[in-house]
Amino acid sequence: AKVLVLNGPNLNLLGTREPDVYGAETLAGIEANCHARAKALDLEIEFRQTNSEGQLVDWVQQARGTFDALILNAGAYTHTSVAILDALKAVQIPTIEVHLSNIHQREEFRSHSYISKVAVGMICGFGGFGYEMALESAARLLTKK
Ligand code: DQA
């Protein structure tokens, strides 16, 4: 099975970005851990990051027919993007939402997620390890089918 891991704005800065909130791990480090975990789970993955909302919409649209599941950390677009929500609704690919931080412990505006409206589930508060948890969940989801 093929899983597309998508990362939104500012996640390219992980490692130096608010380390008190997001930890010292870089996105490249998280990607490496994801590849190792995917291999162990017999999943094929592609790992991408963009700062642009439209690019995320394009990637979600293009995933139809190619990927069996999505893992999505949409960054701040989580809280604002009806466009990404609509793209997810259109493609109907099972999506697992991930956030490094516990979004419910932070500013009020981070508590609401458009992605959660359609996600199978959401993992937050476990840092980069959350991506590995999401891969485990995707593997379980896809073999149950
Ligand atoms: C985030 C949480 C968002 O509120 C924030 O805008 C991010 C990162 C997280 O992974 O914890 O950019 O998605």
UniProtKB/TrEMBL annotation:
One of its GO terms (molecular function) is 3-dehydroquinate dehydratase activity. It is an enzyme of class 4 (lyase). Pfam families: DHquinase_II. The record marks R17 as: Transition state stabilizer. It comes from the Bacteria. InterPro entries: DHquinase_II (IPR001874), DHquinase_II_CS (IPR018509), DHquinase_II_sf (IPR036441). Pathway: Metabolic intermediate biosynthesis; chorismate biosynthesis; chorismate from D-erythrose 4-phosphate and phosphoenolpyruvate: step 3/7. The active site is at Y22 (proton acceptor), H99 (proton donor). It catalyses: 3-dehydroquinate = 3-dehydroshikimate + H2O. Substrate binds at N73, H79, D86, L100, S101, R110. GO terms for biological process: amino acid biosynthetic process; aromatic amino acid family biosynthetic process; chorismate biosynthetic process; quinate catabolic process. Its EC number is 4.2.1.10. The keyword Transmembrane does not apply. Transmembrane segments: none annotated. Keywords: Amino-acid biosynthesis, Aromatic amino acid biosynthesis, Lyase. Belongs to the type-II 3-dehydroquinase family. Homododecamer. Catalyzes a trans-dehydration via an enolate intermediate. NCBIfam families: aroQ, PRK05395.1-1, PRK05395.1-2, PRK05395.1-3, PRK05395.1-4. PANTHER family: CATABOLIC 3-DEHYDROQUINASE (PTHR21272). This is 3-dehydroquinate dehydratase. It comes from Magnetovibrio blakemorei. The lineage of its organism: Bacteria, Pseudomonadati, Pseudomonadota, Alphaproteobacteria, Rhodospirillales. The gene is aroQ.
